[in-house]
Amino acid sequence: MIVEKVKGLKYHKKQDVAIVGAGMTIFRRRLNETGKELSYYAVKQALEEAGLDISDIDMVVMGSAPDAFDGVHMKGEYLLDGAGGSNKPYMRVFVGGGTGVFAPIAGYWHVASGLADVCLVVTEEKMSSSHPHPQSAFKYIWDPILDRPLKPNLIWIFALEMRRYMHVHNIKHEDIALVSVKNKANALDHPAAQLAAKITVEDVLNSEPMALPVRRLDVSPPSDGASALIMVAPHIARQLTDEPVWVAGVGWSLDTTWWTNRDLYFPRYVAEAAKMAYKMAHITDPRKEIDVAEPYDPFDYKELHHMEGLGLAKKGEAPILTREGVTARDGDLPVCPSGGLLGVGNPIAATMGVKVAEIYWQLAYRAGKRQVPKEVTTGVAQAWGDLMQVGTVMVLSNKR
Amino acid sequence: MRVAVVGVGYSGFNANTPDLSWKEIMYEAAVRAYEDAGINPRKDVDSFVTCAEDFWEGFAIFDEFVPDQLGAVLKPTFTVTADFLHGIANAYMIIKSGLAEIAVVEAHSKASDIVTFGEVIKFAFDPIWLRPIGKAHPYYFAALEKSYYMSRRGYSDELFAEVVVKNKKHGRLNKDAPYSANVSVEDVLSSEAAFYPLRKLEIAERSDGAIVFVLANEQVAKELRDDPIWINGIGWWSETSNYDTMSFEAAYAKKAAEMAYKMAGITKPDKEIQLAEVDDRFAYKEVQHIEALGLAKKGEVEELMKSGYFDRKGELPVNVSGGNLSVGNLLEATGGQKALEVVLQLRGEAGRRQVDAEVGVAMSWRYIPTATGAVAVFSR
Lengths: 400, 380
Hints:
Chain B: This is Acetyl-CoA acetyltransferase. Chain B: Keywords: Isoprene biosynthesis, Transferase. Chain B: GO terms for molecular function: acyltransferase activity, transferring groups other than amino-acyl groups. Chain B: Pfam families: Thiolase_C_1 (PF22691). Chain B: InterPro entries: Thiolase-like, Thiolase_C_2. The complex is a heterodimer. By secondary structure, chain A is an alpha/beta fold. Helix content of chain A is 30%, strand content 17%. In chain A, the strands form 2 sheets. In chain A, strands 3-2-4-7-1-8-11-10-9 form a 9-stranded mixed beta sheet. Chain A has a two-stranded antiparallel sheet with strand order 5-6. In chain A, helix 5 packs across helix 10 (300-309). Chain B is of the alpha/beta class. Chain B has 2 domains: 3-115 and 207-224, Thiolase/Chalcone synthase (Peroxisomal Thiolase, Chain A, domain 1), CATH 3.40.47; 117-204 and 232-379, 3-Layer(aba) Sandwich (Peroxisomal Thiolase, Chain A, domain 1), CATH 3.40.47.10. In chain B, 37% of the residues lie in helices and 18% in strands. Chain B is built from 16 helices and 9 strands. Chain B has helices at residues 22-37, 41-44, 54-57, 67-70, 84-96, 117-122, 139-153, 157-170, 185-189, 218-224, 251-264, 269-272, 283-292, 301-306, 323-327, 334-347, and strands at residues 3-14, 47-51, 77-80, 102-110, 208-217, 229-238, 275-277, 359-365, 372-379. Chain B has a 9-stranded mixed beta sheet. In chain B, strand 8 and strand 9 form a beta hairpin. The longest helix of chain B is centred in the first third of the chain and has 16 residues, at 22-37. Classes of the chains: A alpha/beta, B alpha/beta.
């Protein structure tokens, strides 16, 4: 028997959720600190910004991408005491590369369900323990029978995706390179940045070929780092700050394992995740209603790809908006004002610091030199991961 | 608004499953659960939760491989790197947050694919402080804990043998308990002291299986079936993952139980709970967990155990399914098997091993080297 259900989600949540503090370490290759120490630094900063003590924290959510990076089984358990999770309800959630925005989504439901009033979300990544390169950990993300014997690596499949995207919309590499130029320049204002630089389109096009069309400067670096976020119930937010930033919508979606069966030109999983988050946030026209965006940009074409998935541009329109300066920090729709993964670095799950935390800082007007000049009310952060497969989206707003 | 279990399905439990892949056992369990709940996963389920650890699976990002066989493609799906009961906690919160009306939780074990079990566990040890212990098998850490716990409480070795005898006997009534047996206290005590004072028969062997639950909010649950099983409370807790700072007395279980009991409004667990399924992957763990869950006072378990208090026909049956000692070590699906047994018992579908119970509790631990556990309270 199949019941007649599906009335649409009602969002009868127990309570609203606010963000009142965030912190992040610098992002670098081969930091001397262990993952536990990195987690500790990020947590300490977030607690200081919120004006809280670790004993005020009800529950802890951890986000960290594959255990293979560290060679540690049950990595969540290993990181537990560094992240302030000992003697607390502690939960590690995981959606591969999408974890950076997914962990705060899990933090959201810890508070929205009423089970916690103060939830600490910690994300950590230490990619440099992997020898000779984190790519060696990615050997084990493929289907063991159909994919692994081909010895693929990630740059190789993203080259396929980038080429497909360029082909369908007839996009030139020059236009894609502009994203790298913009983000690396934005990162000059980020104190945690790893690869901030003033570069030109020519620099990108003349950089070392990795797997064409992907060149060295099209790609974000592997990094170590951690970030933290404090999510609280309204009655706690009131005590801590006059200007909390509210979680307006969350969404996530996981596509089929068979990435070879997808048309790679458009990220449907991001579109599905965005649909869920926008519905919850009552957003019907994202291009008009979103003031600032942090889409996931591990590759320069990915920012464009994800802008289209998020409905911030029509299909094939994102490179045009970029060329016209719409996505610049002082543009009409600032995209990756933090400097993104291309400029600040890409410690997979810890990119929460340049995605959700950045939008929080922008909406709280605490982004310092990175603050976008326009007035902002609503922002969106997004991450992506697995086998070009998962989209995670969070919409924040400084109006309740 | 309450949250209920409206469908359960499982595949297994077997000592090994050479004929089916882990995807196939997940599919079997999922199809049975959807059939049980009377739902269509593609149309009706709002969110999917899976529970898995990469190293158990032999993948770097295992959550890539879960959506297809669950019917979860292009749906809100994610993985919890923890036990099934942690997965239940997330699904519970997702429903309570209004993000979903119907949520599905999955966990599985394909332990028979693991060639070097002890070596995989060692990868969970701190790489600097603990991993260099050389060739010692990680079970020695359980042996240390047992040793400490015995001397602390003054329990005799017969108590742990009694646990093995009871659970392996319970498993004889469960067709899905590959390690059930008729053994005596003498058999246990004379089995090889492989990790002294831990004997071979006190250690649960590994097995394969998958469990899928369908959870729904109160309104939908009542529409779906007349006998939903309510989740009255859920709790989870972590001490630390360092052997030098953990309590060795299952404080994780005590704290997780406190959280779940508070939510369920239970003040006298030994009176209000009629059925318990607790982690018994080492026989001494069952005793620790009985105490931690407040089902007996500290130091009193030996007397009660010997009097048959925790037997299937006793006052407070513990591990009627046969527990891990009969069903096997199901890795992250361990809590799933516990919760499954409680739900089947409360529904009156436990067949020959049926007991009379209104309120039951399921408890899991995340195995060596963790001090992390979760507790769920279910009622009719």
